[in-house]
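Anyone else keep sequences and structure tokens together like this?

Example one:
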Amino acid sequence: MSATAAPGTTPPAESPTPTLPTSTTVTTGTTSGTEGKTAPAPATAPGPAPAARPALDWRIRFGALSLIWGFSFLLIKVGTEGYAPFQVTLGRLLSGTAVLAVAMAVRRERPPRGARTWGHLAVAAFFLNALPFSLFAYAELTIPSTLAGICNATSPLWGMALSLVALSEDRPTRRRVAGLGLGFLGVLTVLGAWQGFSGLDFTGTAMALLASLSYPVGWIYVRRTLAGDSSSTLALTGGQLFLGTAQIALVTPLFTSAPDGIPLLPTLAVVALGALGTGLAVLMQYGLVEEVGPTTAQMVTYFIPVIATAAGVIVLGEQLSWNTPVGALVVLAGAALTQSRARSGRASGGRTKTEDHP
């Protein structure tokens, strides 16, 4: 989902925090701008100076984003060793919100306005942050982080199936239907269906799959309700994270008790999970979408389960049978097919709104 990623395809993030769409931010070729906010220069004025290039090449930032989101599942697992799942989610959202609040202050962004916008953001925060973050944390109490990362990769499959029902502009094609079937076959391979799902924790696996389903539900809702909002993407995402934090803050005291202490490693894991995977990653992906476009930026989705699996095996020593990586590759192939589009120009004037990236 997603992630952090914007609605339209997949998370991420572990879609960490999907970037919300806005009708004003667009990318045209390699140049990004804000519609309706820049008056044309007089004929005698010199042309605008080219935008400053980021200090780091986009490929380096792409790789860093893949690592951050891929390691998120390992950080969740470590966090749950010292804190209850709701506490992990609360700490994660607090850290991520703090990062975006600083970014908004630096860029002098104003929070979204209007009760209607905040109401829609509250629903988005539930489906894109509070619910999936909590479900993944609870799932990793009983399943390996590698399996959680692979379950997250099914989000594009859920998204394609849901969009065919909820979004009239999304029409089924043979390629996308084949991708859905291939992805489902990959899930059965990962879960070892031919062995009768022997040794599988059904509750934890179901929670991880439900978390991956929650992302496209949220993306579709945002696409239908907030795509025309005049607020910036950063402001909408910051408001969404703030509301998600408030939701979890209300629930956590009801289902958990205060921890006996503050264990160092789990605390560092939770802070890193929020500050990097839910805060910094959103800003990095937003920059990638502006620089190279959503199609390239969304490719990060296909690296996440690979990195999550490698991290779980190498760092945490989790066991890996042959069907897990093989099934994961089949899932990713199916997900790639479901996101494919015909080349016959659905874009208008070369512009791609940020809502189309994962």
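And example two:
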Amino acid sequence: MDIAYIPSPSTGVIHLGPIPLRGYAFCIIIGVFVAVWLGNKRWIARGGKPGTVADIAVWAVPFGLIGGRLYHVITDYQLYFGEGRNWVDAFKIWEGGLGIWGAIALGAVGAWIGCRLRGIPLPAWADALAPGIALAQAIGRWGNWFNQELYGRATDLPWAVEISAGPNRDAGTYHPTFLYESLWCIGVAVLVIWADRRFKLGHGRAFALYVAAYCVGRGWIEYMRVDEAHHILGVRLNVWTSIAVFVLAVVYFVLSAKLRPGREEVVEPDRSGGGDGKDKAEADDKAKADDKAKAEVDDKAQAAVEAADAGPKDSAPALAPRTDTTVAQGAVKADLRKPAVDAEAPEADKS
């Protein structure tokens, strides 16, 4: 009796005239769109501006694709530079072969450049995009189904995937590790969204949670795979990578929570210089201008007071009667005496 299984497509490419439409490429593209869409919604919810996630993704995605391909080619160099291999195949990304570790690492460099140009913190952007990246991986893994790759040990389980005979593979039914990882990534996305809402994760901790959770699943799924890979101490290289990256993500999460608790209040300034930051700067400038104007008024008032105080001593004879007392009937003698004193001054000058 035939067992149930998941059939694989007979080909991973459909030709629309002279144009090849590849299932692997479609899965990657759809995953990117989903990541940007969800990331944009989360970014706006945190106070960011629409379109910022896409603008930065323009930098992150190309860097990520290059990084993912480099990691794959370097760690599986024998597939491209071994005996009987054609090194040109290293550039045929549509045939499969993207290492998530290299994609995230170099993609982060591209994202950092985009964030610098927009004046926003990279950790905040990464937090917004984290669950979207997990969903993009979940969708992208189905590209491996089109290419009949990344399967596990032989099995007769009802959800086994059928693999046809081909280069470096035997026909049979195997554990669909691509499906396991796809479902795991969906669970990671749900976990990150829940934890972010529940605990208000910030400063890169939502992204760190995504990385740590993904590494846990990738470790045991990688252990099930039977495709050719490098081993260290009898363990596949990607298992060791998962362990190392998991530790780094957990350390970052713990240290970040202690050093920078809470969540960023402002994630994106205005393009002209920045939202609340610009408003505060303008308020400070206005306050300084007001203080300067007040100081000028005070200086003028002080000068006027000093001039009034100095006036009676240096004034002409016509102003002299106001030296000692207010003009009144009781101050007649003082007013008569003052001109007499001033009258002697010219005589002294003549002598």
